[in-house]
Amino acid sequence: MPRTPSTCQRWSAREVRVLHELPRVLVVDDNAGAADALATYLSYEGVEARSANGCAQALQCVKDWVPDVVVLDIMMPERDGYETAIALRSYLPTQSLGIVAFTSLDEEHVRETARSRHNFDGYCQKGTAPTALLALLRNLWHG
Hints:
The chain is an alpha/beta fold. The chain has helices at residues 32-44, 55-61, 81-91, 107-113, 130-142; strands at 8-10, 24-28, 48-52, 69-72, 98-103, 122-125. The protein contains five helices and six strands. A six-stranded mixed sheet has the order 1-6-5-4-2-3, sandwiched between helices. The longest helix has 13 residues, at 32-44. The radius of gyration is 14 Å and the shape is globular.
């Protein structure tokens, strides 16, 4: 029996406080073109967005620019999305940072595999319309 594809879901009740004039979103994906394209789309939708290609670049980026939400790929070389989420939560002092798993992996697989579920505030499957991801992000910072 075919499964209904997952779309975008909020997983936590974390309150993401937008600390800047525009919401800031960091897109982390080892596919540079995909990360840049999503960041560009978000910038057209009133979001200050940047992209990083993996954990090391993400940690370098947040030294000078603290995002409100991170859109995070899971399947990345070196440090995967689970490890990257832990690293970002450890590095950034804010408790209000939102992290959304953005992956081709099935939602249940991500839930089961996440070493610590509280590291993710939501899930969006790649291939879903970017408007659905944007709606999830807005839900995170508007509660």
